[in-house]
TrEMBL record:
This is 2-(3-amino-3-carboxypropyl)histidine synthase subunit 2. Signal peptide: none annotated. It holds the Pfam family Diphthamide_syn. Gene3D superfamilies: Diphthamide synthesis DPH1/DPH2 domain 1, Diphthamide synthesis DPH1/DPH2 domain 3. Keywords: Iron, Iron-sulfur, Metal-binding. Its cofactor is [4Fe-4S] cluster.
Length: 384
């Protein structure tokens, strides 16, 4: 039962059955491939139980075909729509760490997994942190810890007792089911980077601001900003956490490592990453030839982003090449020594590539806009 709960066999089967899918691709990252056979067997058994009595004798009701996908061409955090199209899939079930980037053509169901965590120890650290600092706290987390957030909320209320409670807000998971997004129209506007925010007046006369990053979403009341909050991250030191640190670098951040049951407050290594990103942008300003690395063929709007990058680069008087090569590595990019810098068009997490071993810097589209377009600096604060 624990296995079926971790892999959400019942909700997955319900998603497939409700949408009448007949061909479904199951996308596993490398570390979860060992469980793929058991997942397929459990899903088949559950799907058979959802069919009407006698349906297995009816030739008009085909059995669902399940296809295991591995070794994705690009980052495993994104839905591999290209791989799914090779088997003519109706939909995709994505397992493990994800960036929840919008899909282009196929609906997707996300199984985040349920990483083990000591709720009591986490609450003790959270309450101590909140009471000690006497400031507002915003709890963010890796998606594999989403299953524990409700328990953490309840235990935190009990731990604080009836006295004055510190103000603690929790992010929510954006969704677990995603339908294809329509391609955005080409425009001259800046693309929406990670950590985007929008005005929200859906709560009567009270205005709030909605933030989203890495599949998480939360609201801040009118007049509040991110710098007013201490950020408490529950999860690993992975690309999702690096995205948080780089995006909200003006906030004080701590990380609770659930695997070690420890609180980490020294984020000097992450701060050094931020300094390096600034250094790469400065080097990009001197580039004469720019290579655009296509890091996805499925994330909604990627073609529009490539088009915008070409216009930006040519407008800055530089030459541009577009390269499609799967996952980049130093050996691949060394074949293009004429390129002074590369722009990695991918999801927000995959695009943060550590390029120390590369001959030329690899930057994100947002960093490219800051480097190549002086007007972006004026609007930068609006995208934090």
């Amino acid at each position: 039962m624990e296995f079926e709960s971790n892999y959400e066999i019942a909700p997955t089967a319900d998603f497939i059955h409700t949408n009448n899918f007949t061909r479904v691709a199951l996308q596993f990252p490398d570390e979860l491939l060992k469980d793929s056979v058991r997942v397929v067997s459990a899903l088949r058994a559950k799907l058979r139980s959802l069919r009407k009595p006698g349906a297995d004798l009816n030739d008009d009701v085909p059995e669902v075909s399940l296809f295991v996908m591995a070794d994705t061409a690009y980052g495993s955090c994104c839905v591999d729509e290209v791989g799914a199209s090779h088997v003519d899939a109706d939909g995709v079930v994505h397992y493990g760490h994800t960036c929840l980037s919008p899909t282009t053509t196929l609906p997707a169901f996300f199984v985040f997994g349920k990483a083990p965590i000591s709720v009591l120890d986490c609450v003790n650290n959270l309450s101590h942190y909140a009471l000690e600092n006497r400031r507002r706290v915003l709890v963010l987390f890796g998606l594999d810890y989403a299953h524990s957030i409700q328990y953490i909320k309840e235990e935190f209320v009990q731990a604080c007792g009836v006295g004055s409670k510190p103000e603690v807000q929790y992010a929510n998971v954006m969704c677990s089911v995603m339908n294809p997004s329509k391609d955005r129209k080409l425009s001259n506007e800046l693309p929406e980077p990670a950590g985007s925010l929008t005005d929200d007046t859906s709560f009567g006369t009270t205005s709030s601001v909605t933030y989203s990053i890495g599949g998480l979403v939360w609201k801040l009341p009118e007049g509040r900003k991110m710098e007013d909050y201490l950020l408490f991250w529950i999860g690993s030191n992975n690309s999702a956490f690096a995205n948080i640190v780089l995006t909200y670098n003006g906030c004080e951040i701590v990380r609770y490592d659930a695997s070690e049951c420890s609180m980490l407050t020294d984020l000097s290594q992450q701060r050094r990453i931020l300094k390096r990103r600034y250094y790469l942008m400065e080097k990009a300003k001197d580039a004469n030839i720019v290579g655009i690395l296509v890091g996805t063929l499925g994330v909604a709007g990627y073609l529009n982003m490539i088009h915008q990058m070409k216009e930006l680069i040519t407008g800055a008087g530089k030459k541009v090449y577009t390269l499609v090569m799967g996952r980049p590595n130093p050996a691949k990019l060394a074949n293009f020594p004429e390129c002074d810098v590369f722009i990695y068009v991918s999801c927000a997490q995959t695009a943060l590539l550590d390029s120390k071993e590369y001959l030329a810097p690899v930057i994100t589209p947002f960093e490219a806009m800051i480097a190549f377009n002086r007007y972006c600096i004026e609007y930068g604060d609006a995208y934090r």
